[in-house]
Amino acid sequence: SGTIEYFFQNTLWLIRTINLAVGDTLPGSLRDIKAIITLGGPMNVYEEADYPFLRDEDIFLQNALREKVPVLGICLGAQLIAKACGAQVRKAPQKEFGWHKVALTSAGKKDPLFSGLPETLEVFQWHEDTFDIPDGAVLLAESAPCINQAFRYGENVYGFQFHIEVTPSMIGSWINEYLKQPSDAGAAKNMLPDAYKKRKAFEARANTIYANFLKIISKQK
């Protein structure tokens, strides 16, 4: 959970971490849940046959949307939100790995989640799929070749295709685990050195987003 854990453990909120891939189970009720942050993983949303817990999370997120619980989804988490909203998730025109820039749309510049941030954000990408923007949702950030980078559904549900939570140690572990082919060597070469160079500014932007999300959570009844 990277910088998310660092930020929220310094607040008064009680945080519960659930890892469905290792057998943890989702809460049976949303009654005491004030917000949900759903993160990434190496699987794809349409691989429910191989990863049955994806179906459980799909139902859980549909219920959260219905109950208007604030949700922030990152990478796979954003794709799961899009799917729960009825939008299509499919292979992207091009895989994105490493450091990239995304631009806020006119709606993104006005959105409270991005308050205090520049119009162009440097983010970390690690995905091969992309999502359509759900019906009724608003595109908040875009880039090429994967246009849809962030959206808001309703007043308090957000999906980011990109990562804001990563730390250098997380990036290093992903490189070691997933980029093992010689063809990946070029893509991986500068990822980790750049992570240390960019760390301070990157974490400051992430913390601004978390603080803004905390304000959105706090407005809930």
Q: How big is the Rg?
A: 17 Å
Strand content: 15-25%
SSE pattern, N- to C-terminal: HEHEHEHEEEEHHH
Separation of the first and last Cα atoms: 26 Å
Binned, the helix content reads 25-40%
Task: Tell me, rounded to a whole number, the average pLDDT.
Answer: 93
Q: Quickly count the helices.
A: 7
Uncertain parts: none
Oligomer kind:
single chain
Biggest sheet strand order reads 1-2-7-6-5-3-4
Looking at this protein, list some descriptive labels:
221 residues; alpha/beta; seven-stranded mixed sheet; 7 helices; 7 strands; 35% helix
Q: Any overview of this molecule?
A:
This protein has helices spanning 2-8, 53-66, 76-84, 106-110, 168-178, 185-188, 191-218, and strands at 36-38, 71-74, 89-104, 120-131, 138-142, 148-153, 157-160. It is α/β, with parallel strands linked by helices and 221 residues long. The mean pLDDT is 93. Helix 1 crosses helix 7, helix 2 crosses helix 3 (76-84) and helix 5 crosses helix 7 (191-218). The two termini are 26 Å apart. Strands 1-2-7-6-5-3-4 form a 7-stranded mixed beta sheet.
